[in-house]
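In this section we walk through a basic example: taking a raw amino acid sequence and producing a predicted 3D structure, encoded as discrete structure tokens. The instruction is simple. Fold the sequence below.
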Amino acid sequence: LLEVVAKAEKTEVAVATVKNIRPNTSAWNIHSLNSRIWGKGLIRKLLTRYSMNRFLQHDLDLDATDVLVATTDLTDIAVNAACTRGWKTCSIIRAFEYLCIDGNMGFFERAHDWIEAADVLDRGKLPLITNSHFMQSYFAENYGIQSEVVYPPVQMPETTRATPCKIRKIGIVNPAIDKGYSVVKAIAERLPSIQFCYFGEIPSDAKKVRRKFSNIEFHGWSRDVSQIYKCVDLMLVPSQWAEPFGRIPVESIAHGVLPIVSKIGGLPETVDQDERLMVDPHNDVEAWVQKIEFFMKHPEKMASLVHEHTAHIRKFGIEIQGKRFTHLIQSLYDTP
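The resulting token sequence is shown next.
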């Protein structure tokens, strides 16, 4: 999003300084902090938080900073530093699993961090940006905190392939349990004539799965996402947890490939709440098979649905979401 405002370097732990993005005024800076502190081990988490907190409290140029934008785990550090040093600040919450809100993570200290940060956000009426209406409702209902929605922007392709007229290969991204790995294996067993192509990190049981299912393939990651959609006829997003947002369905439609998604979390927003493209319950293998078989029997429906949803996915484009993000930051800067 910051690239819409100005070009910014993004690294694992990044402080990006952006100048000259506010027209007709003096230059101003945005510092974007994004630290993957949930990575390996409590010691790394503590050291990362300590170093980032020290940087914000003591090293970051006080006069050159106008707005502080933090994401998820760094909310409490950024909010406290901003309050101490008199900066404008907001938090972008992109996921809740890192904060233990879904109860599946064991790091209770993150929940404590969030409770503290949520209290500061609410008490100071500081802005919160969420990445879907699902997340917006979640924080409003569970914490009484209002937020603005900025969708994760999707880069739309310049050209789109013709929608396939027959289903031979079905694509899925990321073979993980919470992404529906077990569900896909069960579907593959029911539909042996279809090849299921997994993209993402190859799982440890890949050889075992290939021996059992001749119609499941593992392709690893591809830097060029268009290559994924060129070789599949249908995409599945069978997530078993409430994903805050889903990039794959949007990319899929943008590349001319119809997606079928779990009716859970923020995924329904990506397909405009269209029941024809959703499976509910999300863990019902039979429901998934029936949905796929419908499009196998009526492949002409895939092209019409992709065309129907093309207008809807434009709102997820980088231009629209970038302008919205820029407007929110400028509003924050202009607030007394």
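Looking at the output, two observations stand out. The longest strand covers residues 13-18. Residues 56 and 316 are 32 Å apart (CA to CA). In the next section we compare this with other chains.
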